[in-house]
Design brief:
By secondary structure, the chain is an alpha+beta fold. The protein has 5 helices and 4 strands, in the order H-H-E-E-E-E-H-H-H.
Length: 107
């Protein structure tokens, strides 16, 4: 299972992913038992979370990651799906297959 931080620590680390002037109004997601959950709705189109996408391959690095409005609409849903699969303890191969299938099916 991916490392669970306290919500406050997850938010703090996630917000460190961007310049200070973009943090206040960014949407923030934290990782929980079911994957990534939005805990703060933003108003500037930017999104932040602590990336755990390497966990299924044994990489335990926590990486604060941020997206602008375009990436929040396109890349972030993929990252949230990865989080959902990580929470279900899916293998790296299962995660890759699911993401590829999602792209092929237009989801």
């Amino acid at each position: 299972m991916s490392t669970l931080l306290s919500q406050a620590n997850d938010v703090e680390l996630a917000l460190s992913a961007g310049p200070e002037h973009l943090r206040t109004e960014a949407t923030v997601y934290v990782f929980g038992d079911g994957g990534y959950v939005r805990v703060k709705a933003g108003s500037n189109g930017f999104s932040r979370l602590v990336n755990r996408d390497g966990f299924q391959a044994g990489d335990r690095t926590l990486r604060p990651t941020g997206w602008d409005a375009e990436d929040s609409a396109t890349s972030l849903p993929v990252m949230r799906r990865v989080g959902e699969l990580l929470a279900k303890r899916k293998s790296a191969d299962d995660v890759k297959r699911d993401i590829v299938a999602g792209f092929n099916e237009g989801r």
